[in-house]
From TrEMBL:
The chain crosses the membrane at residues 31-51, 72-96, 108-138, 150-174, 194-215, 253-277, 297-315, 336-354, 360-377, 422-440. It comes from the Bacteria. Signal peptide: none annotated. This is Gluconate:proton symporter. Keywords: Membrane, Transmembrane, Transmembrane helix.
Length: 441
């Protein structure tokens, strides 16, 4: 009887949290409160003979935070490299020269700028980097007459496409699975096994972006030029950096693929080379000032994210602990067909919007705990099951920080942004999930 009471309380608290997250509630606060609530529900079960007592301070709060250190290091290195790309002028130079190449053909220019955005964000990460690139690209697209309803989704979908090979976002999602004991021993980790899928997923999503641009080609060609932002605050000069430094955004990914390096040394070497190739290591004083400035800005950009991820680890740990007692009950209720589950999650992919039940950085964190509690599935399958809708959703969900900024900066109505962006990401979900089946598990 008590286990049914516990189940009812867990479902109720999950529903309340889902509504809170979907209404834009602070996720750090939400995950912390949810952790405490689920911990109390578990101890209620222990009092009635369900589950076993444990050192919750050590097991739920101390160890999960301490073991999250490697992930935080990768996030910091990725955010720093992204900021270095911006502050050394490489990102801006790529953007300006791309716009100049396609200025006589607005459709071609839009496609080129989508490709450049994707290129930059294969390594860059964070709302700060997105803003730095957006204040360059959006005014250019405005002067070309690209309608806002096209320009904004193209920008956010292109960033989202790059995230498939961005190690910073990968390690955040992989952390959900680091304690999962897969029945076949598979482990979710960064490397060539994942990257062959990630590159394919990137190409599929960028194909979706190009098709979206071509569908709207008439509106782009007949568009009326407009101003975005304050013209006096927009950079006007192309940064003076060597053209061959434009390859720097893909250097970390190339090192991971070709030399099979870990993401941290790949990002660190790429950062140092970027400083050197753009002339910022000519003197110790200049190099030190640039190093400190970029590191300070990068860490400031991701500070709230790191705290949220630590709290999320607390919730994940208690969720897995609680769900172990429900594993025998849940196993008969969950289909064991990977095809059926994959198709169902693709059809339901919009439920990832607004931090819903298919978004790992939302209510989906509890959903994945339910599937892991069964111990039935390959680790890479569970990764794809929730990460595919979560990752594609990043491109078009208004709760994503850089999407929120893009909509606000351009003055586009949020509902118009959703109306144009969601169908593209939803359509991409199906082939990307299919690729996961072929290349991951």
């Amino acid at each position: 009887m008590i286990i049914w009471v516990m189940g009812a309380l867990l479902i109720l608290s999950f529903a309340i949290f889902a509504v809170y997250a979907m209404k834009g509630g602070n996720l750090t606060i939400g995950f912390f409160v949810q952790t405490i609530v689920w911990l109390l529900i578990y101890f209620l079960g222990v009092a009635f003979g369900v589950g076993k007592p444990f050192d919750f301070v050590e097991d739920i709060f101390a160890q999960p935070a301490l073991t999250y250190g490697p992930t935080i290091i990768q996030i910091v290195c990725g955010a720093w490299f992204g900021r270095v790309l911006v502050d050394t002028g490489i990102a801006a130079s790529i953007s300006y020269r791309t716009a100049k190449v396609g200025e006589k053909n607005p459709v071609l220019a839009t496609i080129c700028m989508a490709a450049v955005t994707c290129l930059i964000f294969t390594s860059a990460y964070g709302v700060g980097s997105a803003i730095a690139i957006g204040v360059i690209l959006f005014p250019i697209l405005g002067r070309l007459g690209v309608p806002k309803r096209v320009a904004v989704p193209v920008f956010t979908l292109s960033i989202g496409a790059a995230m498939w090979v961005n190690s910073v976002l990968f390690v955040q999602f992989a952390a959900f699975y680091q304690d999962y004991k897969s029945p076949d021993g598979s482990v979710v980790e960064w490397g060539t096994h994942y990257l062959r899928f990630g590159i394919a997923a990137l190409l599929v999503q960028m194909l979706g972006v190009i098709i979206f641009i071509l569908i709207n080609s008439k509106a782009i060609k007949n568009g009326t030029p407009y101003e975005v932002g304050d013209p006096d605050e927009q950079p006007t000069d192309i940064p003076d950096v060597p053209i061959w430094t434009y390859i720097m955004p893909i250097v970390p990914v190339a090192l991971c693929i070709v030399l099979q390096w870990n993401a941290v040394p790949a990002l660190m070497l790429a950062t140092i080379l970027t400083f050197a190739f753009t002339g910022h290591m000519k003197s110790i004083k200049e190099f030190g000032a640039m190093l400190n400035s970029t590191a300070k800005t990068a860490i400031g950009d991701i500070g709230p994210l790191i705290i949220m991820l630590l709290v999320l680890r607390f919730f994940q740990e208690i969720a897995v602990t609680v769900m172990k007692d429900f594993g025998p009950i849940l196993t008969p209720l969950i289909p064991n067909s990977t095809f059926i589950l994959g198709l169902a999650f693709c059809i339901l992919a919009p439920l990832a919007l607004f931090r819903g039940p298919l978004e790992l950085y939302g209510a989906g964190s509890a959903v994945i705990s339910i599937f892991m509690a069964t111990g039935m599935f390959n680790a890479w399958f569970l990764f794809a099951l929730l990460v595919v809708p979560s990752m594609t959703c990043i491109s078009s969900c208004i709760t994503q920080s850089w999407n929120t900024w893009s909509v606000g900066y351009t003055g586009l109505e949020p509902k118009t942004f959703l109306k144009n962006g969601v169908p593209v990401y939803w359509a991409c979900t199906f082939p990307i999930m299919g690729l996961a089946g072929l290349l991951l598990f």
